[in-house]
## 1
Amino acid sequence: MLTFSTLGNPYEQHKVQITGEGYSESVTFEGLPQDELAIGDCIVGKSKTMTFQLANNGDKAVRFHWNVGDKEEFRLFPS
């Protein structure tokens, strides 16, 4: 229940009941600029760094497999 007052009239109060639906994800990406992984333009032969975290919000361990083929440029540094 949300209760709010009218500006300039502290005696008038309104009550609004809000109903919604939520969800929870087991693993979330955190620290992404603008909440998305947008690498943008890249220059051939130059490295580009993006920093973000993976957070396990569940109660079980999560394993990841990154299919990067024979590329060594894709690196993860877990903390």
## 2
Amino acid sequence: MTRADVQVDDFTIAIDDGVLADLRDRLRRTRWPSGLHGTGWERGTDLDELRELCAYWADGFDWRAQETLLNELSQVIVEVDGLATHAVHVPSPEPDAIPLILTHGWPSTFAEFRNVVGPLSNPAAHGGDPRQAFHVVCPSIPGYGFSAAPREPGWDVRRVARHLGELMTALGYDRFAAQGGDWGAMASHLMALDIPERVIGLHLNLVLVYPPDSPDAMEGLTENELARANRFAAMNAGGGINYAMLQGMSPHTLSPALSDSPAGLASWLTEKFRNWTQNDGRVADAMSWDELLTHLTIYWVTNSIGSSIELYLESTRTGTMGPPPARVEVPTGGALFPYEMLAPARKWAEPLFNIVRWTEFEGGGHFPSIERPTEFVEDVRAFFAPLRAGTPEHRGG
């Protein structure tokens, strides 16, 4: 059950018709840039593809259908540390289930996990073993989507991690499993570092470890590890992390444009979804436009894109954006997808994490719960299976 001294309210997404009408109107009135066309993605977002996407967003995309699907997931608003925090909270029907917090990153939202909540919380209903069930919590990071934005500076990813630990306490979970990618990976590894007595195990689909600056760093690497290292080097050489530098230095320079123009928002975010996934040139090769536009619409209707990128500045200033500052002793599983931005060699990760499982997949990228949901679920189940022994039951409600 939830803590008696914490306010937990049921939550249903219900966006006002006027907000959706304004979105469609803005999309139809987009002032498209002049200049070169037909250059594909070599100069950034493909403007021809973007126009096609925005036309569909205005006149083809059915937000109400996506809203209905999202509302099939039980959701709550919880007052944590003075902030109204949104989360999917789906307790399992299985008595031996363990709590699991799945934390998203940028530029995705909690909706990243909508296809894996059911198999994880109720495996028996999805052809799985009921002994591998979880009580699933998928929070919206503060300042993202339906979670309130922090009202003062200082909310770096370490404070976010502390906030998520308090959320789990509020929901009645003393000990829990943690999983994440992107910001969710950083928040999860910081929870494992700061409150190790509460974290049963740590599963990461983004293992934040950079290539060591040593002459023998590449010695002994497998063919797959070398390919991933070369991909990361090529991305850096091509300016692939410039977005993070901009958001980490001047979020207020960028956020008015993204908050005022849905086409601008789509251009900025679609580039990341396209570049960070396995595809044949179009983001639709990795996920449907409906899936992509669900994330974009959540940012738009909550006006949260500006507050979401503040996390880059806060974490850059405190040096918390990146690898953990000390070794994480909590048992850790790495799920390595080859089209991830950074997918390090195991030998680079072992000095910073207590690696007990290391899985290298043949496909997929930065958003495996969207791109490879079945493999994602199977790996989460397999990693936590041996860690369940002796874990007391904690069930929220």
## 3
Amino acid sequence: MTNRFIAFINPRKGADVEGTIEEIESNMILNRSTIWILVCGALLASIGLDTSSAAVIIGAMLISPLMGPILGVGLSIGLYDSDVFRQAMQQLLLATVVSLATSVIYFSLTPLGQPTPELMARTHPTLLDVLIAFFGGVAGIVSGSRREKSNAIPGVAIATALMPPLCTAGYGLATLNFSIFLGSFYLYCINATFIALSTTLIVRLMNFPLREYVHEARRRRMLWAMSAVLVVMVVPSVYFLVSVYHQTRDRQIVQNVVIKPLQREDTEVLKWDIQSNDSVQLVRVYLSGAPISAAQIKQIERKLREEHLDNYRVAVSRVNMSKQEIAQLSQESARKLLESMQLQAELREPASLQTLAIGGGAATGLPPAQQVLREVQSLFPAVKGLRMGRLNGITADSTNHADTLATVAITWALPTDTVGKAATTRRLYSFLCTRLRQDSLELTTAPPSRLPRVTPLLPVRPRLPKS
């Protein structure tokens, strides 16, 4: 019975060994036509990532010829063929450089170029991506070795996703965002490494004939080298997986401890998010209906501490409008309403801007901060200093999709009364939206010591109103 089961699951049964070797070695060579297909695949993937179109990204995965050199690397290691290994590595390096260069050129020229959810989804690979790449590679080599070809190869190309993370890395280079580049290129390396590894393991399991005799000492050195590469690939992904797990767990606790108790008959939660302010995680909740007392907020924060979320604080903003009424508004009006609420909350409680990505300039699509400061001071003499950039992490729902928002931090020259400052701030907000060509932005007030050093303040003596 055991022998029958082993014979049934033996992948060598029904395999075309010679045909598989010949097919992989022929497909790993990039000729003139495959280079053109590679460039088109990179352009399609870049367009899909830029417009957040999953259908276009899937199409780019299917036509991309990146799988050929990677399978060639895995096959050559399994056959102990050093000549084929060098050739496959050269072809893989060529394909990687061509794809990366194509995406860099596209994202340098595109009029869009914003970090879409499809882009950001490929910047934090985890251990799950390692498993996807490995089992996808196993399915690919087993399917490709059959005499009767199946339709598993397109599925493998979609599951392992080689081209999208490589084009995301190109976006990181084009925008000089090296955190995006490193995260997405690491995902590409994970996929390539574990597809090659699974190919090597299946080749050895199916007893493909060796091309060269390998001495036992050299075989041990190769095994140690492969183990070192795998450790380098896996360890960061474990760290990312633990980070994602903690973020997901914390959001679930916030959902249960903060959001659900606020969802009562007389209140509705319209929007909520978690913002990092130095060492404090601020849970911002926007709701309609009955007001929430300070005692209730303290009780919620006490429950968060009981769940070991000691650095979490809760800030509630209330608007006299129901969720159904907001749903009747246009999407644009609703978005501006919620962002206006957030602006008011920020002005009541200045937030630290340690997450401010970079200062104004071509990299952010914003004009130089010094120029904007001069224009602001000509209209608003009470403004002493101004910094601006793009603030990461503003989310519209309970997902982890990141967004970017133009952010302006103002330092006032003189203290003003509450009413006068509020009116001035509203006019300043409208002016900055028009000047920076933004539908909305984040306007904050903070002392100079709390502002990140991203753009030097212009040393201009504030001009006071004439008496």
## 4
Amino acid sequence: MSLVTSVYQGTGHSKIYQIQIHGKNLVLPTYFPAISSAETRFMLEPLLEAILRSGYPRLLVSAYDLAKLPEKRHQNVHRILSNYKENNFVFLDSGTFESFWFNDKQWSFSKYKKQLSRICPDMYTSFDSVPTLQQSYEDIEHETFNNIRNSHKLKRNNSCLFACHGQNPNQLVKLVKNVVKFEVVPEMIGIPERDCGKTIEDKIKTVQKIRDILDEFNSKTVFHILGLGNPLTMALLTFSGANSFDSVDWSRWIVDRKTFQFTDLANLPLLHCSCKACKTKQIDYSLKAIFHNLLFYQDFILQLQQVIVDRKEIGFLKRHLDKAGFSKIVKFFKS
């Protein structure tokens, strides 16, 4: 049975999916704030508590970070996540990003498996690894297939996201093309944003090619972009066929609601923002900044969904790109 219970086709590659996991409904496109020990300014528990206090209904957490917690702290985090996922969505990442960031060669499938069994998330990525320059495509494909096969066996429903990496966009597209024909039918596929190319044009073309492959095989396959939180890029790749995103940006920078640009956390007062979070008094500054970002992402996702429903993707791009940028980009989205 497919995770996707309904599909609305927008303009071109744009789609709105409704999926159901553990009796809970989720509308895509969507964004998962990622909690990660890599490239972050806060510890795991404060970030987790901030998401809970904000009421944000989705999060992604790293199996690697959970494994590194002392047992007492792990029990506390497990309790928090168990309560949270009663009505919200917990997405467990394999920990590849963190282990690569910290150059930890000891991170393994068995350690990932242990965290998966303890947390029992709504969704989880297959165990994966970042390809080295010395690896051939055949080695990468073989390793990916083994990881997918082993990770998928751990599932309790259809919520295993097949993670794919490539040394370049062409290799990534080739890998996805072979993964969809693999012995296990993918309900969800995920690729890192950094593997999609160096320019925004490269990224759009890569995502559109992959979406075409997925649609030819199964149009209900959920397409996730790992490590992407830039709002404008999220919009461009949503209109190119991606369905969901995650990143640590929400805890590292401040998002300007007017420009979609990131700035330092300390610069929140300079934005003169009047969102609900910013108008709240007697609240810790760091918490206010995080609430501001989480509220932005929730509002932004709803805005993207409405743009697709109204089939006004081109108008959205025209409003948020300058004339030169729009003329370069619009060719990718003409019907």
